[in-house]
């Protein structure tokens, strides 16, 4: 896939996992910051060529096809300056090559349509690499706007390339916790289901036949009458992956109106999905690094009145070769969530 900014010609090649899909939908996978309607207009106006020829938005692409997006006049999303003073309190680690932050709720990772003025990138801009028109400097993975927790960003081009490779090779461990309505059956397992854009709602993703490979490991840590606490580990990093996979299992994250509907959002505090632990080897020094952080205090408010929980897995995560310490479920419930077990 090309990395050229959208206002100059950019060349893309269709990967096997995108073969068999409409041209406009494939372009949306590459450039999701713009709507499918926007790209349909560009295709209709002749600014997109498929294998050297003008094509229709509904043309089905094949693996290896070349897509050229010609000069498209799009206002730059590149953040020119920080939108507010840096808040160093959410930086958990920083060196010359990378930054690890504990992302707050209601903040997107990088600029996008509707979020041109504030993002993690905006707030950390003085610490990130200068990459010309790149509107995602330093970004190697993302968290949803309403998901809190740990995120690593690169401070040099080489570190960014190396971290991206490590994520693709599954050398970066990303562990999440979530509170869901109901109980998982079975209580532990792997959800292996491809994910693509929802057919009718472009704000959503869904499990679809021709989607991109997606795998999520989950374990039930504790249960109570109406809900459960899960630990989830991403083997891939698709948009909304955890939320989509849980939805496919008939469950949803508390506070998630997009996939759970209005009933899911009635806790009044926001989505209860948190990136709890992040572990990897330093991309330059190869030193093992492990970080973890409790979810925000509003989880306690959301879990008031759940009663006593029943622990179903003693450990949230065990220690490993990356220097991670053992986290007990009982400790997480008591000290992090204010729930007795």
Give the CATH architecture of the largest domain. 2-Layer Sandwich
Radius of gyration: 21 Å
| Parts with pLDDT < 50 across at least 5 consecutive residues | 1-7
Overall shape: globular
Number of folding domains?
3
Name the CATH class of the largest domain.
Alpha Beta
Straight-line distance between termini: 49 Å
The chain-level structural class is: alpha+beta
Quick gist of this model?
The chain has 341 residues and is an alpha+beta fold.
Task: Report on the architecture of this protein.
This protein is α+β, with helices and mostly antiparallel strands. The chain has three domains: 10-69, Structural Genomics Hypothetical 15.5 Kd Protein In mrcA-pckA Intergenic Region, Chain A (Roll), CATH 3.10.290; 88-168, 2-Layer Sandwich (Pseudouridine synthase), CATH 3.30.2350.10; 173-337, Pseudouridine synthase (2-Layer Sandwich), CATH 3.30.2350.10. The chain contains eight helices and 18 strands. Strands 5, 6, 7, 8, 9, 12, 13, 14, 15 and 16 form a ten-stranded mixed sheet that branches. α1 crosses α2. The longest helix has 12 residues, at 157-168. The chain is globular. Residues 1-7 have low confidence and may be disordered.
């Amino acid at each position: 896939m090309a990395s050229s900014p959208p206002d100059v010609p950019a060349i893309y090649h269709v990967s096997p996992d995108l073969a068999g899909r409409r041209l406009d939908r494939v372009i949306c996978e590459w450039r999701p910051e713009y709507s499918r309607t926007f790209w349909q207009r560009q295709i209709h106006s002749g600014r997109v060529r498929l294998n050297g020829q003008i094509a229709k938005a509904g043309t089905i692409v094949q693996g290896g096809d070349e897509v050229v997006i010609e000069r498209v006049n799009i206002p730059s999303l590149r953040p020119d300056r920080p939108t507010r003073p840096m808040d160093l309190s959410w930086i958990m680690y920083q060196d010359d090559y990378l930054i690890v932050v504990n992302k707050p709720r209601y903040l997107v990772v990088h600029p996008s349509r509707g979020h041109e003025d504030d993002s993690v990138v905006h707030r950390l801009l003085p610490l990130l690499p200068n990459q010309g028109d790149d509107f995602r400097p330093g970004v190697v993975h993302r968290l949803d706007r309403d998901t809190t927790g740990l995120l690593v960003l690169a401070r040099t081009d080489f570190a960014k390339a190396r971290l991206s490779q490590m994520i693709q090779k599954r050398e970066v461990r990303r562990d999440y916790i979530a509170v869901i309505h109901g109980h998982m059956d079975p209580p532990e397992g792997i959800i292996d289901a491809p994910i693509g854009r929802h057919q009718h709602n472009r704000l959503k993703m869904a499990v679809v036949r021709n989607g991109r490979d997606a795998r999520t490991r989950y374990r039930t840590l504790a249960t109570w009458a109406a809900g459960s606490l899960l630990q989830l580990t991403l083997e891939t990093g698709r948009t909304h992956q955890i939320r989509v996979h849980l939805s496919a299992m008939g469950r949803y994250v508390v506070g998630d109106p997009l996939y759970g509907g209005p009933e899911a959002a009635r806790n009044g505090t926001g989505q209860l999905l948190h990136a709890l632990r992040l572990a990897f080897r330093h991309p330059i020094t190869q030193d093992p690094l492990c970080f973890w952080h409790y979810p925000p205090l509003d989880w306690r408010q959301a879990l008031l009145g759940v009663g006593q929980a029943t622990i179903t897995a003693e450990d949230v995560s065990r220690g490993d070769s990356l220097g991670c310490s053992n986290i007990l479920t009982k400790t997480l419930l008591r000290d992090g969530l204010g729930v007795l077990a």
